[in-house]
UniProtKB/TrEMBL annotation:
InterPro entries in alphabetical order: PRTase-like, PRTase_dom, Xanthine_Guanine_PRibTrfase
Domain of life: Bacteria
Gene Ontology molecular-function annotations: hypoxanthine phosphoribosyltransferase activity; metal ion binding; xanthine phosphoribosyltransferase activity
NCBIfam families assigned: PRK09177.1
Gene3D superfamilies linked: 3.40.50.2020
Residue span, Phosphoribosyltransferase domain: 6-144
Keywords: Cell membrane, Glycosyltransferase, Magnesium, Membrane, Metal-binding, Purine salvage, Transferase
Species: Catenovulum agarivorans DS-2
Name of the featured protein: Xanthine-guanine phosphoribosyltransferase
């Protein structure tokens, strides 16, 4: 990575609100926050889209700035649950970078739609909704990581 983009809370919040505006109201019943990066955007989208059904799925890949093997650290139990009717889920991420995380998740959920606040070119095509494009060689520091 050649450059660093350090985001403050206000900039990130505004971007999340713009993301909410391009997602059709009532198209989705539930959000799946891909942790950890999807947690804050999912909180903002859940308010703006008035969606109260929230699940998390935990995937880890980056250690410092190096991407290693992907690990499922927490499954999305609700998506398999017989306790609720099948729902229309929107997966939420802070960033699609190489696209490896989304490709990994699409093995399990091939038709899932993804909303990512920030998108880099390599992964952008995997995402249905995003609002901020950044160059591939920029490393982003999100406010909760600082
Ligand atoms: O498109 P990719 O190249 O796969 O990169 C994107 C992923 O990397 C970050 O997660 P990270 O692995 O750093 O875990 P974290 O969300 O717990 O910080 C980010 O939140 C995405 O999940």
């Amino acid at each position: 990575m050649t450059e660093k983009l350090v985001l403050d809370w206000q900039t990130f919040h505004k971007a999340c609100k713009r993301l909410a505006q391009i997602i059709p109201l009532e198209k989705y019943d539930g959000l799946v926050a891909v942790t950890r990066g999807g947690l804050v955007p999912a909180a903002i989208l859940s308010n703006d889209l008035d969606i109260r059904l929230i699940e998390t799925i935990g995937v880890q890949s980056y250690q410092q700035q190096q991407q290693g093997d992907l690990q499922l650290v927490k499954p999305a139990y609700l998506l398999e649950s017989e306790l609720i009717e099948p729902q229309r889920w929107l997966f939420v991420e802070d960033l699609v970078d190489s696209g490896c995380t989304i490709k990994f998740l699409k093995q399990f959920y091939p038709r899932a739609d993804f909303a990512c606040v920030y998108a880099k070119p390599q992964g952008a095509e995997l995402v249905k909704y995003s609002v901020e494009q950044v160059a591939q060689d920029i490393w982003i520091d999100f406010p909760w990581e600082i």
